[in-house]
Amino acid sequence: MPNLSIKNVPEEVVARLRARARRNHRSLQGELLELACAAARSVDDAAQPARPLKRAPGGTRSIEQIAAEHRARQAQPIADAPSAAELIRRERDAR
Known about the structure:
Layout: H1 11-23, H2 28-44, H3 63-73, H4 84-93
Helix pairs in contact: 1-2
């Protein structure tokens, strides 16, 4: 995979990116990769349906990646599927 390098980044920007990465439970590199991928998708894929994203090194995925993969697999909701609340009630009542 190719590498990118950004030089002369202001200290404040780096601090904010590190804080964002921490909030998203990612490394700084992982956060920067996600931001770059999201920016590229928003420009290139504005009119195309969502597609699964590549997994990050180490096999970890963000919640956004998992949601995008789910939407790509199941574009329309299942008509007769029970709600999450109903599933929880059934599980609780079975105890």
